[in-house]
Amino acid sequence: MIKKLHSFLGNWKMKKAELKESVEELRNPGRGWYQIHTFSAEKNFPTEDLQWCLGDRDTLALVFIDIGYYREQALDSKCLSNIDSILDYFSQSGLDMILRIAYDREGRAWESEPYSFSQVMEHMKQLSPILSKYAMHIYVYQGMLVGSWGEMHSSRFLATAQMQKLKSVLDNCLGRHSFLAVRRPSYWRTLHLNGESEFKRTRMGLFDDGIFGSDTHLGTFGESPADEAGWGAAWNVEDELAFEKKLCQYVPQGGEALYEEEKAEERSLAVTVERLRRMRISYLNRVHDARLLRLWKGLVWREKGPWEGMNGFDYIGRHLGYRFCVRNVSMTAMREKRGAETQCLWEISIENIGFSPCYQQTRTWLEWKDDQGQTCTKELILELNRIMPGEIKTGTCITIPAEGEVRLFAARKQDGRAICFANVPEGGKGVLLGRLVPP
């Protein structure tokens, strides 16, 4: 708690920085564009072939590992060693992993999957130690091994009891470090029968590889209203979007956007953005669907403000996930009583202008130099991951004054990865809040 202080006139002042909003891309963790990197589990991991394809534009990588070769046998030591090598490589790449392990990557799940569910369970249990080992580096684990392209459709293993068993194994090996994701909101509800009370406790989000592909996102949604269909069934678009907006306050959703022949050209950029915002989309495929992405590049954001005139692809990409912008800062010089040491009470207002919250814990701090030139820091009382899209929250901090610049920094707690703010840089790192001037 902040101790109550009393203000006295004639004390330290702050020359406030401009705090202009930037429209530049921010390479922040846990959000953004990704590309797919596909591997066959029975083949040696080709490290040398990957060097050229991990560019500096992405913040995530979808790692797809095909285990279809082992559909009717246990995963052998070579397979497990190859998977370990793949995950080790990506854990050191600086990219957050979206991991999908599946039997099928050609849309023929019935031909590629095992005949028995016991074989699927054996494979999941064999994978558990490796998943546990790299859980800190797996941002999202998509699917449950089954379905065409690992997307949990066209499979014989999607009965509720089967999904519950697979979920249990994944929960145990990934713990609280990684998020799980299922293909449809109806699957989420089937696996969480206690209703919305489970939103705050769950680690399971969604992935949608049919965004805009049809009115129902290629079967992601249903046709009936929620009150008629029931909790575990697929709902119509409006009810599913309302559900996703609530659920994805706590867990991420991402996927692929598709070109729909009949309606893609008619859909405005504003309507597209509104759909992605309602879904709280935090990551998308940078390559697929190329036709839709080209279309987005030809659209222009018209709303007045710093984003006016930007093409749709860049506008969408820069709003994927969270995007924090410092909107205001104030400093009040205070003392507990006359003659006591002066302290500075900072109040810093930050807005999330992205499509989604930040889903991982953060730390935020002020930084300045004291009279001897030593760097000093003090934590800001504010959790960035609590700021919902469109919200502004104010954090507070008390510091000892020293003449010169005061800057704001943020990082992800689990690994210290920097989180950049969407403010135009003004020399140096972090956000320049202002310059303290002595009495």
Properties at a glance:
single chain, 439 residues, alpha/beta, eight-stranded parallel barrel, five-stranded antiparallel β-sheet
Helix content: 10-25%
| Annotation, overall tally of beta strands | 17
Distance between the termini: 28 Å
Shape: globular
Q: Report the radius of gyration as a whole number of Å.
A: 24 Å
* pLDDT averaged residue by residue: 93
Low-confidence segments, given as residue ranges, are: 1-10
Quick structural overview:
The chain is an alpha/beta fold and 439 residues long.
Structure description:
The chain has 439 residues and is α/β, with parallel strands linked by helices. The chain contains 11 helices and 17 strands. The strands form 3 sheets. Strands 3-4-5-6-7-8-9-10 form an 8-stranded parallel β-barrel, surrounded by 5 helices. Helix 4 packs parallel to helix 5 (160-174) and helix 8 (237-247) crosses helix 9 (269-279). The longest helix has 17 residues, at 117-133. The model is unreliable at 1-10 (pLDDT under 50).
List the topology elements:
Elements: E1 6-7, E2 13-16, E3 32-40, H1 47-50, E4 60-66, H2 77-91, E5 96-102, H3 109-112, H4 117-133, E6 138-142, H5 160-174, E7 179-182, H6 185-191, E8 204-211, H7 226-229, H8 237-247, E9 253-257, H9 269-279, E10 281-285, H10 290-298, H11 312-319, E11 324-335, E12 343-352, E13 362-369, E14 375-379, E15 392-399, E16 404-412, E17 431-437
Parallel strand pairs: 3-4, 3-10, 4-5, 5-6, 6-7, 7-8, 8-9, 9-10
Antiparallel strand pairs: 1-11, 2-17, 11-12, 12-15, 13-14, 13-16, 16-17
Helix pairs in contact: 4-5, 8-9
